[in-house]
Amino acid sequence: SDLVFSFVEKLAKELKKTHPEVVLWVPAYDYYSRPPEKIKRLPDNVGITLCLFPTWIQTSHPETQKELNELTERWFELVGRNPERLVVWDYFFYPNCFFTAPTEIPHLLQKNINFLRGRAIGMMNNGFSPRAPQNPQLYLTYRIVWLYQQLLWNPDFDVEKARTQWCRDLFGPAAATMEKFYALLEERWE
Fold first, then answer.
1. Which of 7, 30, 80, 98 is most buried by its number of CB atoms within 10 A?
2. How far apart are CA 137 and CA 177, in angstroms?
């Protein structure tokens, strides 16, 4: 991270001299998703796309959630506590390609999105994989991706009512049974 973001810092300073209106957006990704230790604050023309991999499953582990929150908070500090300069990229569909049951975590997802409120301008998720035809399990993310979009639009969205609506609209006469099924999945995953 120090190597990558030292270069970013130098590039941003030079860019500001010739193009002061341009913001340099850089991913904090994979091996350099940890904040640099030698930089206290990034130039004001740097935006960060923080890749949390994969956020949705890690939120079910309190220690890992604490670590992700601390990581996000440190990046928030590096961009001058300006939410307009931080976006979170959530590898949402992974590792759904290895599962055979939907990963239902609406309450944890809502908690995570609310944590990011005021810290990030938004979130990006790649909810569906282009490999879905080869991996039909990826279609199991439809409901949670729908909820994700609802929560990004309104972090106070009622996920309990949403489950009822989803089951009613999709399963008709089997809605009550399917709602119990989804409630059980949520309980077990979360």
1. 80
2. 22
Q: What is the largest CA-CA distance in the chain?
A: 65
Q: Residue 114: in which H helix or E strand, if any?
A: helix 106-116
Q: How many CB atoms lie within 10 A of CB 3?
A: 11
Q: Which amino acid is at 41?
A: R
7-26 pLDDT, tens digit each: 999 999 999 999 999 999 99
Specify whether the CB–CB gap between 25 and 49 falls below 8 A.
yes
Contact 12, 44 (CB under 8 A): no
pLDDT in tens, 163-179: 999 999 999 999 999 99
Please state, in angstroms and rounded to a whole number, the distance separating the CA atoms of residues 28 and 137. 28
DSSP 3-state helix, strand, coil percentages of the chain (rounded to 5)? 55, 10, 35
Question: Of 70, 81, 74, 88, which Cα lies nearest the Cα of 37?
Answer: 74
For residues 118 and 122, what is the distance between their CA atoms, to the nearest angstrom? 9
For residue 102, pLDDT over 80 is answered with: no
CB 103 within 8 A of CB 141: yes
Residue 138 predicted with pLDDT over 60: yes
